[in-house]
Amino acid sequence: MDRPERPTELNPSADAFVGWARQQAVALSIPRQDDNYDDLGFMPAVIGRKRVVAVGESAHYLHEWNRWRARLFKYLALEHGFSTFVLESGLVEGRRVHDYVAGADYDWDTVAAAINNVWGVWAELNELIRWMREWNANPDRPRELRFYGMDGTGNWAHARYAYRAVHDFAVQVDEDLADDIARDLEQAVAQVTLETREQVTGSTFRDLIGAASLVVSRIEQARIAYTTATSHDDYDWALRCAQILRDVIQGIAQTEFDFEVGLRQFWNVRDVSMAESLHWIRQREGWDAGIVVGAHNTHLQLHPVRTQKATSMGSYFSSRFGRDDVLFIGATSERSVKGEPARSDSNQAAYAKIGPDSFFLDLREAPSSGPVADWLNVERPDRSNLRYQPVCAGDAWDCLLFHRTLSTGEVELPGYLRALPAEHPVDGLARFSGRYVIHGFLAAVNTLDVFFEDGILYTDGQDDTSGEVFPPYKVPMYACDDGRFRWSSWPAILEFHQDGDRVRVSIATPGGALYHGARVGDAVRSQMPTPGGEG
């Protein structure tokens, strides 16, 4: 793949930063196999006495970031006593993954389904989870490894899983509590979601938040009795699930439909709750436990999120609990997964000039004054997914992980998502061609082009800016025997709905999210290359 054209000029402070970074950057490799960890030998000096290493990613579902985090955790577990891996997936559902790693006899399909936020379908992560389970099965292991999610439940779109976890616990310990939970919350939790929130009155939301808060309080008050009736572990999980139940209802209640307003409201509740969950995990595992955290840059960065200046988990955690023993590593690249070069005025344009195709850079070693510090202390465009947000690199990160190009991870579908290819009349495929506008997270608009070429139906997501619903590049689809369409390089499932000349589409992603859209015109064929995809 050709590298993007380099900016012809950078301002003097950028030149100074690049010159300094060339002397400091440590070249890396991200091999597909972990035969040895020689290239990570510099990391203990970087980590020092810190016990939490938070590693970001510039976008989800990418091979390089999933692979490097897994590799880092293995190295730190083998050589430096780390024991816990924490992921940006549901904490509530994630108890099944936690117990599976600890040795519980669960079917893998149910484990994969519990790694939500579209995480349980990527081979790089699944291999790590199975590696942790095999480690724990060894009677001579030096310590037990733990896996946690930290991101609430249900993609923050509903509270059904949290309700079930809390109610199931109440049935064991207190019939009156269980009856009250069912009376006050069961029906509402089934009906109130991020999609239906506009239909719910403010007074109803206030009643639900009050009822959920009361459940938290009653569980806290009965700690001794409930722990005696079950166990410290069951009580601990139940209390945190009740707190998340309250948080999700609160998040849905305050999120407005206007995306520009609603994103900040939604993000603040979500990231504060994630910070509380990470603190909860640290309390459970002990303050000396070594922890690797994996999440999107926008959650981990020590800097407000997007132009809305939403609260990031990293900034809140640091402010509330301190950051003396936490290391924050941002992940960045020159090209996006679509193959786009970096904007010339972006942070990524400067990183791309440093040199190695993959490197690690400790920003804490930068001069505290002068042109290098000046460059690091300026907010400028920074690529997040497929769009840019304002980020001050020096404020956001302790260290940077850079890889010049990016590729989609290797899909590993659990059985419940698979379907056999089916014959589909070739002349019937062409009728689905067109440009579709698909409404995604918080009413964000995603653009997907579908076109028919040489007997094959292709999609092209080059004009999309989210990169989280469907492949953001040109790739073929294949018809399946369940009447829906799939991509071999992407885990979502697409279904067309035709009513005369009107064609609608729905896209289901692992974890239960469902996005809807409609054809708005003819497909627009992209002139961009097709990195990370097929065709």
Secondary-structure map with pairings?
Layout: H1 12-24, E1 26-27, H2 43-47, E2 52-55, H3 63-80, E3 82-87, H4 95-101, H5 108-114, H6 123-137, E4 146-149, H7 160-173, H8 175-191, H9 202-221, H10 223-229, H11 232-254, H12 259-285, E5 290-294, H13 297-300, H14 313-321, E6 326-333, H15 347-351, E7 358-362, H16 371-376, E8 379-384, E9 387-392, H17 393-396, E10 399-403, H18 426-429, E11 434-439, E12 445-453, E13 456-460, E14 474-476, E15 478-479, E16 485-487, E17 490-499, E18 502-508, E19 514-521
Parallel strand pairs: 2-5, 2-6, 3-4, 3-5, 6-10
Antiparallel strand pairs: 1-7, 7-10, 8-9, 11-12, 11-19, 12-13, 13-14, 15-16, 16-17, 17-18, 18-19
Broad structural category: alpha+beta
Distance between the amino and carboxyl termini? 15 Å
Low-confidence stretches are 1-9
User: CATH superfamily of the domain at 156-260, please?
Assistant: Biosynthetic Protein domain
Give the averaged pLDDT, no decimals.
93
Most strands sheet: 9 strands, antiparallel
Strand percentage: 15-25%
Side by side, the strands of the main sheet go: 14-13-12-11-19-18-17-16-15
